[in-house]
Amino acid sequence: MTQKQRELLDFIERYIESNGRAPTYLEMMRATEVSCKSLIHYRLDSLINRGFIRRIPAHARGLERTEKPLPGGLSRTQLHQELDRLAAELIIAHEEIARLRSIAPQVSTMESEAA
Q1: For the chain, how many helices (H) and strands (E)?
Q2: pTM score, two decimals?
Q3: How large is the C-alpha radius of gyration of the chain?
Q4: In this structure, are residues 73 and 82 in contact, taking their beta carbons and an 8 Å threshold?
Q5: Distance between CA atoms of 19 and 56, rounded to whole angstroms?
Q6: Of 11, 34, 50, 59, whose CA is between 20 and 30 Å from 72?
Q7: What is the C-alpha separation between 87 and 89, in angstroms, rounded?
């Protein structure tokens, strides 16, 4: 996916999330600073052909986001859940490292006194 396609897809996703419907071509043109409707059409076709969005026939603003599987067979939802789980594990590990570092001087002192 090109940077421009990603920019358009991100805008479409945000717009649908905020408004409950897809943006118009004019709104997509303004958001991506494109002055030509055919360029938006070309980018939309590329996103459709790659499975990121699909058209809803006979509907104005008839676009919707699809759950295209990612490499490894994960959906975006599964990927975000896995990333959240890993982030939580990293936070716990970081806290444990900080705890161990705080008691390390005490352990060194105790070892010195025992020797």
Answers
A1: 4, 2
A2: 0.57
A3: 25
A4: no
A5: 17
A6: 11
A7: 5
